[in-house]
Predict the 3D structure of the following.
Amino acid sequence: MEKLLDVKNLNVSFQLAEEKLLAVRDVSFSLEKGKSIGIVGESGCGKSVTAFSILQLINRPGEIESGSVFYKNSDLMKYSENQMREVRGGEISMIFQEPMSSLNPVFTIGRQVAEGIILHTGVTKDEGRERAIELLSMVGIPDAAKRYNAYPHEFSGGMRQRAMIAMALGADPSILIADEPTTALDVTIQAQILDLLVDLQEKRDMSLILISHDLGIVANIADSIAIMYAGEIVEYGDTASVFENPLHPYTRGLFESIPRIGTAGEKLKTIAGTVPMITETPRSCVFAPRCPHASEECRSAPVSLVEKDQEHLVRCIKA
């Protein structure tokens, strides 16, 4: 199947005073039409920076140093700002982490949903309003015609997230990026939002990039998975393959640290050590300081992401 999105060797840095921070290094992954990928990792590992880079939303002091982002065989890195405005919200939409900070508090929910529809599809104001009400109803907001005129503070957290999803779907995008879409929501609402995303993806034959720190969520939703650690993808492949046969020590450590039913009283396993500071430029395997299998060879040079099994890649010389 043809790749809809193909990210290759993406590198992103932030210049602070006289110090350059490498937030994302050599990130590569692809996405086919109608498929989904989960990008998983700890807070600060580069998941959101990767997503923002796809849409060229990295502002100074941030900089996309190198790499390419091919969308339908066209490199977005070569697009002008005007061209990217057509892509953002039109071809590729994003649901941000915190809906209250993404919604404008002085405009009604309906106006904000309709605005994107009018901008990207060229419909009239009345048609935009009707389409917005239809979308609000589709994402599960009751009495959508009445709630069209409500303000963000009048919505609960779950309702605001549904409104954000409606905004993202306004121009019928090919790709939806969901950046921690269930943050700060209770478990019941989380499940409803995730079920909604999966249902919409299937009905619209839409591709999905799901950013999360929750392995359970990604296991149930994503066709493929990319495990990120300290700015790098350390393992990448088919979700079933990665879960059944994790090849990287960090991935295995994550899986072993998940609490399981029937293990009451047992000490929860952890990964020894701490995540390296972002100011520390890696000159070897980035996980070597915490890895129980590290040798002098691991500490001598950076490690590339290589294919070990069919379409199962890992950044480890001992995998």
Remarks:
- Residues 3-91+173-314 form a domain with the Rossmann fold fold (CATH 3.40.50.300).
- The chain has eleven helices and twelve strands.
- The mean pLDDT is 91.
